[in-house]
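Task card 7
Instruction: Convert sequence to structure tokens.
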Amino acid sequence: MAGKFEIDLKVIIMGIALVVIAAMGSAYITFLVFSRSVGVVSGQAAVEKQGYGPIHEIGEFTVNLMVPPGFAPRFVRTGVAVEVSDKRCLAELTQREAQVRDAVIAILRSKTHDDIAGASGMEKLRHEIAGAISDLLQGGKVVNVFFTDLVVQ
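Output:
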């Protein structure tokens, strides 16, 4: 009876050793996979951070969206900030604040809920706002548009 107990103990020890080795191997492989993907993402982020220009907060907008006749009204509330190519644009944006806000409101009012739904819709909206504001500026251009707040209802 004592011999049978020793064999069972050896099998248990071997099983535990195999589980520990398998866990260490899978942890090492997971570390390798995630360390490579983080390196790629952090490398891209470092390139993007170098190119940030001055940012101007345009303000918050609450605007009715375009809806077909007979449908309930929908609206969007958003905060908008723009990144410009150089510091001289900041003064011009401040001087032309009314024109800039009017351009953003006109763009937002022309959109339907489906137009701004999803990532592709928001990206199109960013480009449209950037183009409209850049057309107003004499020196410089809008590089990026940031939505600091966004509620669509």
